[in-house]
Amino acid sequence: MANAHRRRHTMERVKISGVWLSEERTVRTGIVDAFHRLLTEDSEWKADIGGVNLNRISQQEANILELPFMEEEVHSALRDMNGDKAPGLDGFTGAFWQFCWEFVKEEVMEMFKEFHEHNTFLKSLNATFLVLIPKKGGAEELGDFRPISLLGGLYKLLAKVLANRIKNVIGGVISSDQNAFVSGRQILDASLIANEVIDSWKKEGKKGLICKLDIEKAYDSVNWQFLMRVMEKMGFGTKWREWIWSCISTAKFSVLVNGEPAGFFPSSKGLGKATLYPHICLSWEWRCRVLFFGGLWKGAASWDVEYRGVGGRL
Fold first, then answer.
1. CA-CA distance, 17 to 229, in Å (whole number)?
2. What does the radius of gyration of the chain's CA atoms come to, in whole angstroms?
3. What are phi and psi of 127, to 5 degrees?
4. Is 94:85 a contact under the CB 8 Å cutoff?
5. pTM for this structure?
6. What is the 3-state secondary structure (H, E, C) of the chain?
7. What are phi and psi of 257, to 5 degrees?
8. What separation in angstroms does the CA of 167 have from each of 82, 159, 170, 171, 224?
């Protein structure tokens, strides 16, 4: 049964940018090159964020984020992790660290102490497998596969601890209309609110403008320098920003093609899929929305707007 499952999911050929690749070597090389391009920053354009005011966390909140890591805090995060998720390059699942905590806690806490004091950790902890999961049966194009990051257990624990810290303050700097990844809010609320707005317009005969923005692969498109400037504007301290920089800038990827690792390359943009990154991405996404809609409303003053109705397309 295992062999049949392997044959069924073997990628014998793949279409990348409209070109079919069928030889094993070219398939592996083509996939690695595609992801390397995806995770490489190739734009010199930098957004100007100097003129926009953002909500800020308090100095007390910034200081709390940078407190030394305590054993109970780390152990609590470890207990909350899903122990059965697939392991990364180190081969250890979360269940291993949970079961062996009493034996390994001194070494783990030493890692957290070094990270707190020197803002860094062993780069090998952030080595990541990318495994390609087909989104549908008969997947042929590379876009038909969903890349899943298999991170090492210790790095996932570090990301979990940082995520637990930032989620306590992120709600105060993110707009009230952002529903995902903020404690006490649900992503489905966005659809319900949009439906209510449209229904209200139609009933009252009001005019309005609806924008649907495509943010496909948003995590993979984040410019690191932009993210750092946003977090600084939001009041996050120097040490916290250096921690985040260490997390995002040390990642290296190897793509699993038919169960075998191919390539080993760094990234220069994007945030991956660690537990921490949805919360970090919120600050980046909210800043992008401020830039977009700020420019939109400034320009709208000179528009001669033609109302096309709620059902029209932009």
1. 34
2. 22
3. -75, 135
4. yes
5. 0.77
6. CHHHHHHHCCCCCEEECCEEECCHHHHHHHHHHHHHHHCCCCCCCCCCCCCCCCCCCCHHHHHHHCCCCCHHHHHHHHHHCCCCCCCCCCCCCHHHHHHCHHHHHHHHHHHHHHHHHHCCCCHHHHEEEEEEEECCCCCCEHHHEEEEEECCHHHHHHHHHHHHHHCCCHHHCCCCCCCCCCCCCCCHHHHHHHHHHHHHHHHHCCCCCCCCCCCCCCHHHCCHHHHHHHHHHCCCCHHHHHHHHHHHHCCEEEEEECCEEEEEEECCCCCCCCCCHHHHHHHHHHHHHHHHHHHHHHHHCCCCCCCCCCCCCC
7. -115, 115
8. 19, 12, 5, 7, 20
Backbone angles phi, psi at 262, to 5 degrees: -130, 130
Q: Tell me, what amino acid is at 147?
A: P
Give dist(CA 306, CA 295) in Å, integer: 19
Q: What is the pLDDT of residues 134-165, one digit of tens each?
A: 888 888 899 889 888 888 899 999 999 999 99
Which tokens is 51 given? 């003129």
Average confidence score pLDDT of the chain = 80
Q: Where are the domains of the chain?
A: 2-299
| The pair of three-digit structure tokens given for residue 1, joined into one six-digit string | 């049964």
